[in-house]
Design brief:
Distance between the termini of chain A: 43 Å
Largest interface: A-B, 18 and 14 residues
Structural class of chain B: alpha+beta
Number of domains of chain B: 1
Distance between the termini of chain B: 28 Å
CATH superfamily of chain B: RNA polymerase II/Efflux pump adaptor protein, barrel-sandwich hybrid domain
Oligomer: heterodimer
CATH architecture of chain B: Beta Barrel
Number of helices of chain B: 4
Strand order of the largest sheet of chain B: 1-2-3-9-8-5
Strand content of chain B: 35-45%
Largest sheet of chain B: 6 strands, antiparallel
CATH class of chain B: Mainly Beta
CATH topology of chain B: OB fold (Dihydrolipoamide Acetyltransferase, E2P)
Number of helices of chain A: 8
Helix content of chain B: 10-25%
Strand content of chain A: 35-45%
Largest sheet of chain A: 6 strands, mixed
Order of helices and strands of chain B: EEEHEEEEEHHEH
Radius of gyration of chain A: 21 Å
Radius of gyration of chain B: 13 Å
Order of helices and strands of chain A: EHEEHEEHEEEHEEHEEEHEHHEEEEEE
Helix content of chain A: 10-25%
Shape of chain A: globular
Shape of chain B: globular
Number of strands of chain A: 20
Chain lengths: 358, 119
């Protein structure tokens, strides 16, 4: 039996078509809307997502920063209070346990936002590797998260909160914000390639905040958006998705995340393995030259030799044609093809991201 | 007088003498979501009742379209190739192909039976 998020009643109200995702009943799309309309709303106006399934872990104590820094590929030293940073949570062999957002609440307290499907695994992984003077708590079940994304997200948020509650910089947050007197944390982050915000609140306020934002955004074209649009949006923006571009057995130096892997740090879990590792594969973007859609796991060929696989693939609603992210051997030249149910379709390598906001 | 029938796999078929026109039911298009691609059969293809002869893709997934009858494809609605969303907008009007029928299985449902089936 899948868990329901505190926003379940909102999904029913707005006609969400519910599926089981990472153990949660969540809307894949909404009745009368659908992935394409919801996707377009986020690119042109705004969309509202329930992302309460995401996990939230709090690490605190005098040694929290040092202990956490040893578990992450990015360097979290020198962040300011109210800053967010993306990092991989690496395993010993240089793969990924997960990818996470690190929120610095203060110098001794950090909030980690992790993937729903990995939350329990991450909690065990991290809590088992912290010294005794560092406190760990998994607050996932007490926290709801709502993502307001799109070019009109800021306009909508500004109708609801005081000026000082609007985080100014990308990847920053305001901790003690309030919407209609309901306490929340608001960060300028997202997983869509658009500007936007993620609002964290207590479960008891989730429906009221959701409804307040929805009503405020109505006149601006705000629509509820489901998991389907969330995936096509992140994919066009070439943001990696754990289980597709990232995994325990995919070396993280083959994923194009160099900006978040600080090999200059004295040490971190998996650093030795990465130092010894010569990347063999790379993550690239491609569009299909022939008609068809390449899906995850479709094999990629150079001539008759398989040189990789598709890690994510779909029709791009914004571009209007099918695109794919590939994990292929480095430095290939020549015509690549992909096997789509027995047919070889030609690929053209294109730069990532597929879509970048103006 | 043509006869409208449905399959358990949610295709519709209009049988008129020895000719059948095939499409996807409203229930099917609703379950599939926004269609963005269709892999049409070709004129002259032999199709077999209960076997895949075409596939459609929504943003999320690919689905086979099963032949409601056996026969030979004589006409294809090429317009769907550039506008697969027509199936979402007008499933009963968006025919996929016309077939010269060689045999009709006996488990097709009429409109009332199908309406009951998808309840």
């Amino acid at each position: 039996m899948a868990k329901r998020t505190p926003l379940y009643d909102m999904h029913v109200k707005y006609g969400g078509q519910i599926v089981d995702f990472a153990g949660y009943d969540l809307p894949v799309q909404y009745e009368g809307l659908g992935v394409l309309k919801e996707h377009t709303a986020v690119r042109t106006n705004a969309g509202l997502f329930d992302v309460s399934h995401m996990g939230e872990l709090v690490i605190s104590g005098d040694g929290a920063e040092a202990a956490l820094n040893n578990l992450l590929t990015n360097d979290i030293r020198g962040m300011y209070d109210g800053q967010v940073r993306y990092s991989v949570l690496p395993n010993e062999k240089g793969g990924a346990v997960d990818d996470v957002l690190v929120y610095r609440i203060n110098g001794n307290t950090f909030l980690l936002v992790v993937n729903a499907s990995n939350a329990e695994k991450d909690a065990r992984w991290i809590s088992g590797r912290l010294p005794s003077d560092v406190t760990f708590s998994n607050i996932s079940d007490a926290v709801s998260q709502i993502a307001l994304q799109g070019p009109k997200a800021e306009l909508i948020l500004r109708k609801l909160v005081k000026e000082e509650y609007v985080p100014k910089k990308y990847y920053s947050f305001v901790k003690n914000a309030a919407i209609n007197g309901m306490r929340c944390l608001i960060s300028r982050t997202g997983y869509t390639g658009e500007s936007g915000f993620e609002i964290y609140c207590g479960n008891m306020d989730a429906c009221a905040i959701y409804e307040t934002v929805m009503q405020a955004g109505k006149e601006d074209g705000l629509l509820p958006a489901g998991l389907g649009a969330r995936d096509t949006l992140r994919f066009e923006a070439a943001m990696p998705l754990y289980g597709h571009e990232l995994g325990e057995d995919i070396p993280i130096d083959e994923v194009g995340l160099g900006f978040a892997i600080k090999m200059g740090k004295e040490n971190f879990v998996g650093k030795d393995a990465l130092l010894r590792h010569e990347p063999q594969y790379e993550r690239v973007g491609a569009k299909l030259v022939d008609r068809g859609i390449a899906r995850e796991h479709c094999p990629v060929y150079l001539g008759d030799e398989q040189v990789g696989v598709v890690t994510s693939g779909t029709h791009s609603p914004t571009l209007g044609y099918p695109i794919a992210m590939l994990r292929i051997r480095k430095g290939l030249t020549g015509q690549l093809t992909v096997d789509v149910r027995g047919k070889r379709l030609r690929l053209e390598i294109v730069p990532l991201p597929f879509y970048k906001k103006a | 007088m043509s006869k409208l029938m449905f399959t358990r796999t949610h295709e519709w078929v209009k049988i008129d003498g020895s000719t059948a026109t095939i499409g996807l039911s409203d229930h099917a298009q609703h379950e599939l979501g926004d269609l963005v691609f269709i892999n049409l059969p070709a004129e002259g293809d032999a199709i077999t009742a209960g076997e895949s002869f075409c596939d459609v893709e929504s943003v999320k997934a690919v689905s086979d379209v099963m032949a409601p009858v056996s026969g030979k494809v004589v006409k294809v609605n090429e317009e769907l190739e550039s506008a697969p969303e027509s199936i979402n907008n007008d499933p009963m009007g968006s025919w996929i192909c016309e077939v010269e029928v060689s045999s009709v299985p006996d488990d097709l449902m009429d409109e009332a039976q199908y309406a009951e089936f998808i309840k």
